Amino acid sequence: MTAATHSTLFPQVPETPDAVLDGLDPEQREVALALHGPVCVLAGAGTGKTRAITHRIAYGVRAGILQPATVLAVTFTNRAAGEMRGRLRQLGATGVQARTFHSAALRQLQYFWPKAVGGELPRLLERKVQLVAEAAARCELRLDRNELRDVTGEIEWAKVTQTVPADYPAAVAKTQRDAPRDPAVLAQIYSTYEQLKRDRSVIDFEDVLLLTVGILQDRHDIADHVRGQYQHFVVDEYQDVSPLQQRLLDLWVGDRDNLCVVGDASQTIYSFTGATPDHLLNFRTRHPGATVVKLVRDYRSTPQVVHLANGLLSQARGRAADHRLELVSQRDKGPEPVYAEYPDEPHEAEATARRVRDLIAAGVPAGEIAILYRVNSQSEVYEQALADAGVPYQLRGAERFFERAEVREAGTALRGAARAGRNDSLLDGAEDLAAQVRAVLSTKGWTTRPPAGSGAVRDRWESLAALVRLAEDFETAKPGATLTDLVRELDERAAAQHAPTVQGVTLASLHAAKGLEWDAVFLVGLTEGMMPIAYAKTEEQIEEERRLLYVGVTRARHHLSLSWSLARSPGGRASRRPTRFLNGLRPGSTAPGARGGAGGGGTGGGGIDRGTGRSAGAAERRSEAVERRPRQPVRCRVCGRTLTDAGEMKLMRCEECPSDMDEALYGRLLDWRAGQAARLSQPDYCVFTEKTLMAIAEAVPSTEGELVVIAGVGNRKLTRFGADVLAICAGETVGEGPGEGAGES
Fold first, then answer.
1. Beta-carbon count within 10 A of 683 CB
2. SS3 assignment, position 572
3. What are phi and psi of 586, to 5 degrees?
């Protein structure tokens, strides 16, 4: 299933390399054309990041700039890798490796193990829970299912952060991590687990990365072999890389710089697995000459949904919040988000099911509707409510589409019919391709009308119906296509895990919904203790919960509903409160002390910085050249790094370092600048550039001496505008007339 795919029609392969660029917006086009050197793409939700990077790869391949076999694109899920392979195939760029970190590492490990270590690679442990349970038992501990899950998660975290058992207690103390058990006990279980693996000659998924890193570090000949094969690297969802994955990436890349990373710090929701946005936020520090492109044009969601998403982040705190992207919807207006309160959970589920049924009756496909919740245990009441309402649904997280038994059986039947051709009596009277597919699949359980209710029978029918729709779309896109052509298409899609859309309302956790999108999204159970979750105690944990809700909001294209219930069961005490994250956003609530408006702050609009150290415009350089005097190296006032970028030198800090800017003051300065520019009939930047105004709003000068030393001010502008600026900084109202000396322009 690819709920993010809005249409299953088959696009035509672009005829020329330049045709690959057609339809890209200016920023996406810059990404596609930035084929050399380090590139960092900061891409907000719904801004077409996958489109941008797949077109980048396809353009490079089709133009002969990149050799397909030398490109390695990595992401974090098989679904995302499959979608990337599918898109590259549709763009005519076959042969590019698009894999998960683990898949790419396992492939290399299997190939080089005999040479580096000798013998066969140890067997891969598919699920480690059973071995963790045995390790705990050897430590005289009996863990229930939830405890086992938590302890297993701790072991995984320790391994991806490259923490050995002996160092685990110290690592927990240093990171202030909330361990599920005494760290010393967990370290003992962790150590025993590792010993059990050695005794049984098995490795787990984290070992795949660790062993690959070890071989590439120790065997320079093997590292050179890998670097000789892969020359260009693309990393999607870069905000989710762990320290171990970053180490592996560094070894792959070596001392080269053909690396393109894509991410959004505001969508970091997997820190419990060791993921950290620091690598994304520090990319410019590690690669000072990097081209940075910001994608903020949201093509997914309506202005109403985008406004709520921006409002959620406007109240956020922390380093990721300082680099948030303010989205700008490119869609027509839609309905306002719906906020609903219910007396108890069953009432909330029943009302949600009724609204889902109404949307389906109004023409919204069931496969374009999702109900999202914080934890999987919340799904049961919604499964029952949907079944009672006669609405088909599917649980996110089931086996992959092409691995389902009914899909494999259908593929075998279609392949046999294609070989038999007109000799197969099943195809008698079936003139077109879609009719032939319907005839074959009718022997496997497909009918023109879906079965009543839900369950396994309905799930099987939905899978077969997806194949029928795929055949219909395929025939529409490729008139005259045969059953053999369709079988070949299915084989290619299976290899790429590029599944068709299954019709049925999706039930999923917020974490599982990452990377997907639907026409209508219902966010349910939004109460304190569930959102944020009760065990989120620190500010950092609370902010990750806020980002999780932001991810949920930005899954919606058109319809968005947010609901909560005051009690768990009918007649229960109405003690619950709606999530704090909606304070000031839902009707009737009071806003907390936000750091900016619903769209303020963050890194602002989209744009391109090619990393030349001259991000300021030519006119700005001319207008302020007289104020620039030779000085000693300018260093960031936060981290101490030497600054070379003109914009950063104005701010006296790295773009990535935290800002303490007075947002309200910055807004007043922008309004004042617009008035001055209009009166002078000059561009805004001739008064002051935005970077200069940001520097003023951060410094909040109170004297002429404090103002004149800010880059971009100087004596001339101090004389012309200084009195106004200092008055605004002091909170005073500036008159309607021009600033001091402004009339001499």
1. 12
2. coil
3. -85, 150
pLDDT at 299: 94
Q: Can you tell me the distance from the alpha carbon of 276 to that of 286, in angstroms, rounded to the nearest whole number?
A: 16
Beta bridge partners of 457: none
Angle between helix 49-62 and 26-33 (nearest 10) = 40
Residues of the chain where predicted confidence (pLDDT) is lower than 70: 1-11, 396-400, 422-423, 452-459, 495-502, 593-652, 654-658, 735-745
* CB-CB contact of 287 with 608 (8 Å): no
Neighbours of 530 (CB within 10 A): 18
Per the confidence metrics, is the pTM higher than 0.90? Answer: no
Name the token pair of 474: 């395929």
User: What helix, strand, coil percent values describe the chain, rounded to 5?
Assistant: 50, 10, 40
- Per-residue pLDDT tens over the stretch 61-98: 999 999 999 999 999 888 888 889 888 988 988 889 99
Structure tokens given for 4: 């993010």
- Answer whether 77's CB lies under 8 Å from 515's CB: yes
- Compute the distance between CA of residue 651 and CA of residue 648 in angstroms, rounded to an integer: 5
pLDDT in tens, 239-270: 999 989 999 999 999 989 899 999 999 998 88
Contacts 24+ apart (CB under 8 A), 215-222: 215/109, 215/112, 215/113, 215/116, 215/117, 216/248, 216/251, 216/252, 217/251, 218/116, 219/112, 219/116, 222/112, 222/115, 222/116
- In sequence order, what are the residues at sequence separation of 6 or more whose Cβ sits closer than 8 angstroms to the Cβ of residue 357? 389, 390, 391
C-alpha angle 165/168/170, rounded to 5°? 140
